[in-house]
Amino acid sequence: MYKDLDPILHSQLRLTIVSTLITLKETDFNHIKEITKAASGNISIQIKKLQEAGYIQVEKSFKNNYPNTTISITDKGVQAFKAYVKNLNKYINPDR
Question: What is the CATH number of the domain that holds 23?
């Protein structure tokens, strides 16, 4: 009946990461960890899945001699999020 919800975004942690990036456009790994309260390993796995889907871009660098991972949303990620919200809304309001 409705287009399936994007399985990449349907994961709670991945959806939280992308939702955060929709607002901020770019953030670092530590901020994602702070927001999600998830384990670093789990966040890394989910970031990799989002990156492989082309939804986010990951840049690794050093900040004050410490590794720093910056994550930003891509145009493809923005479009996928908008489509996800639109399709989810069809489930919530089927008569619209």
Answer: 1.10.10.10
